[in-house]
Amino acid sequence: MVAKNPSLSDLAADLRAGQRRALARAITLIESERADHRAQAQTLIAALGTNKEALRIGLSGTPGVGKSTFIESFGLMLTQMGKRVAVLAVDPSSTRSGGSILGDKTRMEQLSRDPNAFIRPSPSQAHLGGVARRTRETIALCEAAGFDIVLIETVGVGQSETMVSQMVDVFALLLAPAGGDELQGVKRGIMEIADLVFVNKADGALKSQATRTCADYAGALRLMRKRTQDPDGFPKAMTMSALETLGLAAAWDTIFELAAWRKDTGVWQSTRQTQARHWFHEEVRQQLLQRLTRDPALHDKVTRLENAVANGDLSPSDAASQALADV
Amino acid sequence: MVAKNPSLSDLAADLRAGQRRALARAITLIESERADHRAQAQTLIAALGTNKEALRIGLSGTPGVGKSTFIESFGLMLTQMGKRVAVLAVDPSSTRSGGSILGDKTRMEQLSRDPNAFIRPSPSQAHLGGVARRTRETIALCEAAGFDIVLIETVGVGQSETMVSQMVDVFALLLAPAGGDELQGVKRGIMEIADLVFVNKADGALKSQATRTCADYAGALRLMRKRTQDPDGFPKAMTMSALETLGLAAAWDTIFELAAWRKDTGVWQSTRQTQARHWFHEEVRQQLLQRLTRDPALHDKVTRLENAVANGDLSPSDAASQALADV
Q1: Cβ pair B319:A283 closer than 8 A
Q2: Which of A149, A320, B22, B65 could form a disulfide with B15 if both were Cys (CB 3.0 to 4.6 A apart)?
Q3: Nearest to A277 among B188, B222, B306 (CB)
Q4: ipTM of this model?
Q5: Per-residue pLDDT tens for A189-204?
Q6: CB < 8 Å to A319, chain B
Q7: Neighboring chain B residues of A222 at a CB cutoff of 8 Å
Q8: CATH number for region A51-264
């Protein structure tokens, strides 16, 4: 199919050769909502196929925990090891537009200039389903472009973590030292999906506090059920200082150890298959729902029925039957 | 609509009069998978309307924590207070059939003979979507039959907790005393939805251990983010002994206090509305997916596409488009 479209064919070849500009263009195509762009994007992705070798790491952390500093230091360490690193930002609540590119590149200044790194900010998009598809497809493009590590960054304040955890091989949570009972408002669901908790800023005056915070989270992780598909000692909490680049190598070793264990035991492969099935069903659901919402008359009807259910005038089952009667 | 069907009309009247036999018959109608029964069930539910007064309590606990003893003691205390109590069991993994009725009634012997109580075991059904609908509709029937409290019991080992949490006003987790690091394998997600943690068996030799377990969970609950829609001190952990009927009154007072606070602040009403909207969308999704799976040819196609996605031969988006091409 790509052969029929010379520009797509060139794009695929340039992208496979690892050209960052081609990758950026392909992602822009994926992010477009124009129907013809969507068709081209699907053709491109199908032509590129899947590359199962890249390590996909999810990283969550609320603003202020030092996420940019961490990604900058961690990414540079990896590129110095000869790895090619792609960084994708996922923020469904973001209303940032063009300015965000500058923003993301400014906050990771050195990494953005590294020829072995590629940084892509989050597009402004309100719809979580759309963000999921765009992120998944962008990961596939980065893998086709030969990146060894794809780091997907989220803001740690919503459902985006659960979504990202369904796309990655390893999920890490970055925290700042905190004291007292209520540790910096970590969403309960995030603790549930984290393979690793990194307590950042273990430097200067905060060092001892970081150690205590780390112990608290290690306790909380132990208290919860250990996943049967984890090696001994995981999920794990560690301290680090992205600013002083302390603990970054240990963090990488730990991620690598977990990934290697999962590959050896087949957990890696089975998780990816489960994730793919999940996204297939999610896509079916999204595309079906789109049919309901694209038609304005149908959309009004669904809204009316939803309100009737909320007010207790109709049962969910009854309302759903009515909503789908003409579909 | 009910008027057109004399037997349904009688059933509705008997049910509204609080007759337990009519309630049991109506639930059997709801559980049936026959299309004509389904239509009758929908008509009945629409005719009965919704009663927003009953307090819906979710109760989760793994086998061995003393759930039956708790429900028996707690239920009898409530009926002695003049309340009418319905107990529903939700266990999507259950393969129990007719025998379970005897089982559930045996394990709550006194309560099952109490004229102000109604116990309904889980039907054997593999499909979570089906269990959700059946449970929701059974709750509506119990409310129409004038029950003051509907207690929905789950086994604490799967996705059924999340489902039940979307149907109830208050969610409680029952635990047994435990020691050491890994406290009895509580699923991480359950801690996330629990309003209350009851550490049972705080009697005899286990008493001091129960106190320690309670403190551990209180710490874990505090460590996680406090929901903004909670009064001070919630989520809360408490000890009790269902066997010695100690702490049951305190448990009820605490549930009542939380429910009253939520009613006063409007959280109750807004939560129920959000839940209703959720179930409407879930029903739309289920009914759409049923169309895909009911047709054998279509079902085969979807399975083939899903496997292609799992093997990396197709992207989820592409496969979903193909699956829906003929729908």
Answers
A1: yes
A2: B22
A3: B306
A4: 0.74
A5: 677 788 999 999 999 9
A6: 280, 283
A7: 181-182
A8: 3.40.50.300
Task: Supply the pTM of this predicted model.
Answer: 0.67
Per-residue pLDDT tens over the stretch B20-47: 999 999 999 998 888 899 889 988 988 8
Tokens 């349904």 -> residue: B8
Give the integer Cα–Cα distance in Å for B199 and B209. 10
Question: Tell me: the pLDDT tens digits for B175-197?
Answer: 888 754 445 455 566 777 889 99
Residue of A192, A280, A319 lying closest to B306 (CB–CB):
A280
Contact, A229 vs A268, CB < 8 A? no
Give the CA-trace dihedral at B73, B78, B79, B83, to 10 degrees: -160
CATH number of B1-49: 1.20.5.170
What residue ranges do the domains of chain B occupy?
1-49, 51-264, 276-324
Interface contact A191-B188, CB threshold 8 A: yes
Q: Report chain A residues whose CB lies below 8 A from the CB of B45.
A: 315, 317-318
B34 by Cβ neighbours in 10 Å (0-12 / 13-18 / 19+) ranks as: exposed
Q: Which residues contact B85 (CB under 8 A, 6 or more apart)?
A: B75, B78, B79, B111, B116, B117, B118, B147, B148, B149, B150, B151
Helices (H), B32-66: 35-48
Tallying the residues shown for chain A, one arrives at 327
Q: Which of B283, B299, B302 to mutate to test the interface with A (most CBs of A within 10 A)?
A: B283
**Quick one: which of B58, B59, B79, B76 has its CA closest to B147?**
B79
Two structure tokens written together for B300? 């085969």
Q: Does residue B182 contact residue A230 with C-beta atoms inside 8 Å?
A: no
Burial A123-145 (b: 16+ CB within 10 A, else e): bbbeebbebbbbbbbbbbbbbbb
Please name which of A201, A130, A164, B13 lies closest in space to residue B26, comparing C-alpha atoms: B13
Tell me the C-alpha distance between B29 and B43, whole Å. 11
